Amino acid sequence: MTESSEQSSAADRPSDPRSDDPPDEAAAATNTAGDTSETDDLEALRKEVEATYDFENFGPAEMAEMSLEEWEAAFDPGTWVVGEELLDRVEQELNARVAIREIFAVVERVTDGEDRVIAYSDEGYAVIYKDGSVEGEGTVLRDVKPTVALCSMADYELMDAPADASLPDPDDVPEGSGEFGNLMLQIVAGVQLLVGVGLLVAWLALPSLSTIVAPIASFGFLVIGFFLFLVVANARLSDRFRVEEFRARLETLDAASEEPADVVAEQMAAAADEGRGSDGGAPSETDAPEAPRTADTADEDPGA
Amino acid sequence: MSSSGSTYGDIHRYEPARESTAAAIAIVLLTVIEVVFVFLFTYGLISGWGLSETGNMYLGAVLAVIFVDLAFILALYRKEFLPDVMIVKKRRRKYEDLYIREEDVDGTTFGDGAWDQVKRAIYPYYKR
């Protein structure tokens, strides 16, 4: 994707034309109430939009071409979940995703002032507002965006969050995993080394064993044995470092969440700097919402 | 999609290994089999089983069992005895990212039609 300015892509309108809802369905579901002349105007504009744009073949370039009026005529906001309900859904979904460790963040619902859901970690934050706009920065923003898009679709079924849906306590992270598997692997490696050395010695010492197969097999056993010991050593070392690092990360997060007001204030200040001006603008290519990703790795995009 | 604030190497998820009982029993059995067959192979080789036709086949089968067994041990170890770790990495551009936009799905055409392709293929020889 060619999203160049992550920081400024604050407003992600949930009305995403690339999502499952076909636009004509959205148009059909418009409310019939309201001023008749206004409705007629809207109807005319909608017809015009449908004639102008080919929604079967609709991409970011066409999106950028549309004006705001055309956009709002074609995509009825009523078909998307917004407001209080959206925040509830987003909160539950985010908690569930944190519980299965798909998102690394602390999720909070802030009700003083403007109602909003905040997710933050040491690597960024995301603030979700009632209208479905998301702002923030870092990996959290990237992880949260598709969740908000999903939750704004009425037919998306939420995941069930467990009662204690939060990141683990730093002290609860076990010091390395069990030694049992390592022990088994070490037994196998030891036997292979022993046999390898034994075969080599037998080949040198016994005159009856003159076949070339013996040293080759012995070399093979020695290689396997070394490899297995290497695997175990690597597992232990990397395990220790990773546990340490994960704990450190959780601890910084813990320290931050002890003073939520400060963090929130800081976030709000940061958010104010970026401004929410891009909220209602015509959707451009750069802040086109991403399709929800369910990738298994926390990949970064190229050319970040 | 890019996230400028992220640090590569950050640990996103660290779940300790499952180490289920079934896996523990299985890996113990596999280890015992491995040890027995490694010794059997060595003993057979030293006592010259491989010199007769049947004995040779037998030794080969034993070696095959050793390798297959080792593969299962490693697979079990990886799945059940190593922690589930997810780390932030940088995704490099790959060949498959080349025509990632929908309108570029067919790539860039070299010529128009089969006859054009033939002409382009023949041209260098024709010139010579």
TrEMBL record, chain A:
**UniProt key word Transport:** no
Kindly state which keywords UniProt assigns to this record, in alphabetical order: Membrane, Transmembrane, Transmembrane helix
Q: Show the InterPro entries listed in the entry.
A: DUF7319
In this chain, composition skew of type Low complexity spans: 262-272
Please state every residue range assigned to the domain named DUF7319. 66-267
Extract the signal peptide range. Answer: none
**Pfam families for the chain:** DUF7319
Instruction: Name the segments for region: Disordered.
Output: 1-40, 259-304
For this protein, the parts annotated as crossing the membrane are 183-206, 212-232
Does the keyword field hold Mitochondrion?
A: no
Q: What is this protein called?
A: DUF7319 domain-containing protein
Q: Which organism is it from?
A: Halobellus clavatus
Upper taxonomic classification of the species?
A: Archaea, Methanobacteriati, Methanobacteriota, Stenosarchaea group, Halobacteria
Automatic annotation (TrEMBL), chain B:
Query: Could you tell me which Pfam families the record lists for this protein?
Result: DUF7318
User: Where are its TM segments located?
Assistant: 21-46, 58-77
List the InterPro entries: DUF7318 (IPR055742)
Protein name, entry field? Uncharacterized protein
**Lineage of the source organism?**
Archaea, Methanobacteriati, Methanobacteriota, Stenosarchaea group, Halobacteria
Which keywords does this chain's UniProt record carry?
Membrane, Transmembrane, Transmembrane helix
